[in-house]
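User: Hi! I have a protein structure encoded as tokens and I'd like to know what sequence might fold into it. I'm fairly new to this, so please keep things simple.
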């Protein structure tokens, strides 16, 4: 009985050992990662497709590296521009591990890789911005897009020739700002520049307004003069036509016309009830007395 128990115990121990070896020989590759297999620290193979894989227990080990793109956000750094203005530059880098074997051989960890990327980016950004004046960097018309592209190309070239197995996707400058002690003076200068620009725009607007007003006034005077001349011509023609009509009408009976003109003059003469002294035998008085 004891021998039988010992046999089963031995089988159980062997089973546990086999199970342990089987478990130790298996590893899982997840989505978005590389699994690098090492034998005594030396690279043997890499698995990048998700799934379950086998390795030699206790002889082969695995290292995990990210397969997806990563974003490294650099710490703000102080850089001098071409006109010797100190600025704080904040940028980020999009990168990925392209060759896991080269990466493990040269850099080993993600943190160390990001240190190398930070150093390369800082050197390129510092050199590029030192060739540009501060006013051009903060200007609304700056070619920031082209500058970012140039920095990306240069950093990619530097990192690529270093054999790190890294692919630089993009380098972008997020912010360029002055140190706190310099900000107020720059803000004051910007305010002054904007005020000068506004004054120039107002002056140009006033000048244009005066030109438009002068042209409108001239056109109005010409139009009024033409209208007045035309009105005078029409009035003159009307008066001439009226005189012809009056002459034609009054010419038919001169005596009646004379009487009508005399009676019409009375309207003017006796306005306001004036005192008038006339000879009793004058034609004017005789008409008033009804003797003619």
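Assistant: Happy to help. Inverse folding works backwards from shape to sequence: for each of the 292 positions I chose a residue that suits the local structure. Here it is:
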């Amino acid at each position: 009985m004891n021998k039988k128990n010992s046999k089963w115990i031995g089988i159980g121990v062997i089973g546990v050992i086999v199970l342990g070896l089987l478990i130790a020989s298996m590893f899982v590759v997840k989505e978005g990662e590389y699994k690098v297999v090492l034998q005594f620290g030396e690279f043997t193979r890499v698995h990048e497709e998700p799934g379950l894989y086998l390795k030699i227990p206790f002889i082969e080990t695995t290292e995990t590296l990210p397969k997806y793109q990563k974003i490294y956000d650099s710490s703000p750094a102080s850089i001098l521009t071409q006109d010797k203005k100190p600025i704080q530059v904040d940028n980020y880098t999009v990168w990925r591990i392209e060759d896991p074997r080269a990466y493990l051989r040269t850099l080993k960890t993600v943190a160390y890789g990001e240190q190398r990327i930070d150093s390369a980016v800082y050197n390129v950004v510092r050199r590029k911005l030192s060739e540009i004046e501060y006013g051009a960097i903060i200007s609304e018309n700056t070619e920031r897009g082209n500058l970012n592209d140039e920095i990306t190309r240069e950093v990619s070239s530097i990192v690529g020739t270093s054999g790190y197995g890294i692919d630089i996707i993009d380098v972008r400058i997020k912010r360029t700002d002055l140190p706190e002690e310099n900000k107020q003076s720059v803000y004051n200068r910007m305010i002054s520049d904007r005020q000068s620009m506004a004054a120039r725009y107002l002056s140009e607007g006033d000048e244009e307004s005066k030109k438009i007003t002068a042209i409108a006034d001239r056109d109005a005077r010409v139009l009024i003069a033409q209208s007045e001349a035309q009105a005078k011509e029409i009035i003159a023609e009307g008066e001439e036509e009226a005189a012809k009509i009056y002459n034609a009408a009054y010419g038919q009976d001169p005596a009646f016309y004379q009487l009508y003109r005399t009676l019409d003059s009375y309207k003017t003469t006796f306005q306001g009830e004036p005192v008038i002294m006339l000879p009793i035998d004058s034609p004017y008085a005789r008409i008033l007395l009804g003797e003619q």
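A useful reference point when you look it over: The chain has a mean pLDDT of 81. Feel free to ask if any position seems puzzling.
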